[in-house]
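pasting for the record
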Amino acid sequence: MYSRVELIPLKKLIGKSMQMSLANNKTQELWKSFMPRLKEIENIVGQDLYSMQVYRQLPDFNNFSPETEFIKWAAKEVVDFSVIPERLEQYELNGGLYAVFIHRGLPSEFQKTFYYIFGEWLPGSAYEIDNREHFEVLGEKYKNNDPESEEEIWIPVKEKS
């Protein structure tokens, strides 16, 4: 599951966002409203899609509550914000140091990956969670609701103090 730790630059994203929690999950609704608009986005970078979670304050992932609210994004990276289609939004992902993991399988199996990251890898690593965006990169190996699907999970980290 663990892949690498990587330092990334700021990324410019255009997409749609919704407030939700795991208990009130609106991810499908968000993506269904975003995907038909994808062709309107100009100056795109690559083929990857971004599924991003922005927390108001850093949650305790060891005691994560399904009621914890966050802003979820469905987005595409762009070169610049010179053209923003109507009813889509811009977002600057801060960049920084990220631990990258590969999730293979169905979305319903994500909980195993989550427990590995926060219950095994993180406590044994030289890192701790940083208060920045969490995101998944849905690349060429991503296949929606397919057991052979792969996606990258990017967790913001910093060296333990």
